[in-house]
Hints:
The protein is of the alpha+beta class. It is 49% helix and 17% strand. It has helices spanning 32-49, 54-70; strands at residues 10-15, 20-25.
Amino acid sequence: xxxxxxxxxxxxxxxxxxxxxxxxxxxxxxxxRERGYIISAxxxxxxxxxxxxxxxxxxxxSTYYDEFLKN
Length: 71
């Protein structure tokens, strides 16, 4: 029988005073690729649940990505 992987979690919080978004990963979530996959999947799932089109998501990323790189 195939073994079920452990559950993993990411906690996201805001810090408006420092203009930052903080992420806390569960101890068993150490692989950066897996972290990125989970975060991006959550983002796209949220966008879809809000009814955003691909064009709207693309525009959002194009508009704000450079701003995140600066911080």
